[in-house]
Amino acid sequence: MADGDFDPSLLSENQREALGTYTAVTNQEPSTAISLLERSQWNVQIAIAKFFDGEAPDPVEEARSAIASSPAPPTGSSHQETLMNGLSHSLRPPNRTRLDAAPRIVPQPEHQAVYRPPFILALVLMPFNLVYRLISCSFGLFGYLFPFLPRLLSGLAGSRAQSRRQRDPSGRQPLNAKDTAARFIREFEEVYGQHELSFFPDGYAQAYDIAKKDLKFLLVVLLSPEHDDTLTFVRGTLLSPEVVNYINDPQNKIILWAGSVQDSEAYQISNALNCSKFPFAAVVAHTPQDSSTSMSTIARISGLTPPATFVARLRSAISQHSTTLERARASRNEQQATRNLREEQNSAYERSLAQDRERARQRREEEEVRSRKEKETKAKAEAAERAIRDMEQWRQWRAQNIPAEPSGSGEGVTRVSIRMTSGERVVRKFSAESGMEDLYAFVECYDILSGGLASSSTSAPPGYQHKYRFRLVSPMPRMVHNFAGDHTIGERIGRNGNLLVEVIDDDDDDT
Predict the structure, then answer these.
(1) Using one digit for the tens of pLDDT, what is the confidence trace for 100-140?
(2) CA 234 – CA 380 distance, rounded (Å)
C-alpha cells in the first residue's frame, strides 16, 4: 500500500476501527499509521506503545532484507576477486551509526511492584507456597476463635515497621511523577538558591511525549546528591550563565528535565539511558531516519564538564539533528495543513449539504401548503356547486308541495301583498291555517311557480337543510315575521297584509 494515499474500502471493518482508534490517540496520518499497524499485526495497543516508546528493529525483517540485498554467488574466474571485494566492503565503516533508542519510562510505585520468579524457581517453591497458605488459613481460623490475638500481633508488627522506617537512612517517600518533580525543584532551590533554569514540572514520560509531539530536544539531567562532583557541576556548569542562556534560548527548542537518582523514576531513567558516571546529562530527540516513531539518545555528557565544553557538545548534537527535525516539522505542518484543509472542505460540504436539505425541506413544505390550498379550494368549489344543486332540487321539490291558492275571500283566507326584491308586487291568497314557512317557500320559489317550471317528480335532496336568505317585514309599523315556531299566517298577518322582502346579509344574525 502506498504511503501517499490509500483506499479505506480495502480495509476490513476491524482494521478501520483499529485505524480510527490509533489516529485518534496519536494524531498521525492514516497513510503513515497503516504501515505501523501492519507491522504490529493490527494490534492497537502494540502500535500505540511503539509510537510512544519507539519501535525496536525487527530481526526477521532485517534478515529478510539482508538476504534480498545479498549478491548472487560468484562463478568462474572472478570468484577470488569477488571474495576480496566483499571482504574489503565488510571492513568499511558504516555510513551512519545507529543511535541508542531512548525508551519512554513510566515509573511504578514501590508499593505496586510485583516480583514474579522464573518458572523453574516457581515450580521448586510451589510446595513451600502451599504450606505457607495452609498455615495462613490456620492462623486465620485461630484468630477468628481468639479475636484478641490479631490486635496484639498487628500492634507488634506496626511497632516493628515503624522502627524499620526510622532506621531507613533515605526516608524519601515514593510519590507520583508530578509530585516527585515538584519535590526535586523545591530541594534544588533550597540547596542552590534561586536560578533561571526552567525545569519541566512533570514526569519524564510527559516531557518525553511533548518532545516527541512538538519535535523538540529533551535535555535530561540526572544528579546524585551523594556524589562529590554534584555541587561543583551544578554551581559551576549547570547554573553558569553560558549554559543557562543556551538552554533558555527558545530557538534551540530545549525541554529541561532533571531528577535525583534517589527517586525511583530518575534511577530507572539512568539505567535506561546507560548512565555510567554522575553527574549525567543526555539529549533525547526524535530520529525520523530510524522510524516514524523512534526517540533516540543523540548525546551523552558524563562526569564533571566545563561550561564551554558542555555547551559545545549540546550545540554539536542539536545542530546535527536540527535539519532532520526541521524536515520532519515541515512535513508535519504540511500534513496538518492538509488535514485542516480537508476538515474545512468537509465542513463546507456539510454546511452546503445542510443548506440544500433546508431548501428541499422548504420546497416540500411550500408544495404541501400549495397542494393543501388547492385541495381546500377544490373542496369549497365542489361544496358550493353541490349546495347550489341541492338548493335548486329543494326549490323544485318545495314548489310542488306549496298549497294551492284558495278561492274566495271568506273566513280562513288571508290576502297578502308582497313586494319582491326586484320591485315586483305579488298579491296572493293563503289559507289562514297555513304556516309561515309556506309563505317563505312561496317567495323562495316564486320564479319557478310564475314560470311554470315546477316538476312533480322531484324529491327532496337527502341531508339538505335549506336556509332562507331573506326575511318578510311589515313596513308600518315595522315588524319582522319569522317562520320559527308553529305560528300560522292568520295569527301573524291577519286577513290582509303588506310585506316587503329584505335580503339578509352574512353578518346579520336575524333569521
Answers:
(1) 888 888 876 545 544 566 778 878 888 888 888 888 777 77
(2) 99
